[in-house]
Amino acid sequence: MVTLEGVGILTVTRPEALNALNSEVAQQLVETAKGLDGDRSVRAIIITGQGSKAFAAGADIKELASQNYSQAYNGRLLETWRGLDGVRKPILAAVNGFALGGGCELVMMCDIAIASETATFSQPELSLGVIPGMGATQRLIRTVGKAKAMDMILTGRRITAAEAEQMGLISRVVPQEQLMPEALKISRAIAKCSAPVVAKAKDCIKRGLEVPLSEGLRYEMREFWSCFALQDQKNGMAAFLQKQNPVFTDG
Ligand code: HXC
């Protein structure tokens, strides 16, 4: 993990296994993200994979292969990842290559996803005799809709970065060498905003995935009103009226 100008960069580093996500990686990544969430000097988090071949080629099949039901249930297999749900700060996935199975699911756990032109995505779990276990059956349908979710999960078809962008799985595609500069550019833009306001926006959007529209709109309204309790609302609007750049204090 490195931090760069208020941005925490988490890199999955298991090149020998194409950055497959074993339990140690899961634990470290989730705990580090939670730590960064509590660090006031960090305003956004980027997750990427080492090298240019793989973001993450999935959960670690070698680790999963010998598990039985009792071990999976009692050991809460893959549940560690749920920890990312509680992170308030925005998390950006910079997808640098294969994002397969759990790798693709990790992309969907993030708030913003951008990819290099050579990145590919798939949910190949059915070919391994299991269903997705890191959220794809739920997040994919909310991200790309039923038709594409069924297609990806039931066929395991690998899709390109361009197709992933077209279907809304990711928001931008850039040349490989531009991936981290672009991820940092996006993160720095977010970092300039008021941290509690950014957190409120993220929270409202995530809430919208879970509740009916009328409840989501009510939730947004209350959170919007609560912004007026912040000095940052005063600073932001005063700066606009004075034709100056806003300076936010996170208060
Ligand atoms: C463990 C993996 C791995 C994985 C690759 N490796 N993916 N190890 N878990 N998910 C290892 C290989 O065993 C190999 O190690 C090394 O990485 C290099 O991989 P190769 O296959 O030799 O590379 P290549 O021929 O370029 O093929 C790349 C690939 C292929 C197409 C990405 O590796 C592949 O199909 N990987 C599995 C992708 C997958 O099915 N992911 C979903 C996992 S299940 P050795 O030691 O042999 O050299 C999942 C479900 C989660 O994520 C939730 C439900 C349980």
TrEMBL record:
CDD domains from the xrefs?
crotonase-like (cd06558)
Q: Signal peptide: which range, if any? A: none
Q: Which PROSITE patterns match?
A: ENOYL_COA_HYDRATASE
GO MF, one annotated term: hydro-lyase activity
A Gene Ontology biological process in which this protein takes part is: fatty acid beta-oxidation
* InterPro entries named in the record: ClpP/crotonase-like_dom_sf (IPR029045), Enoyl-CoA_hyd/isom_CS (IPR018376), Enoyl-CoA_hydra/iso (IPR001753), Enoyl-CoA_hydra_C (IPR014748)
Gene3D superfamilies assigned: 2-enoyl-CoA Hydratase, Chain A, domain 1, Lyase 2-enoyl-coa Hydratase, Chain A, domain 2
Superkingdom assignment: Eukaryota
**SUPFAM superfamilies, alphabetically?**
ClpP/crotonase
Keywords from UniProt, A to Z, are: Lyase
What protein family is recorded? Belongs to the enoyl-CoA hydratase/isomerase family.
Question: What protein is this chain from?
Answer: Enoyl-CoA hydratase
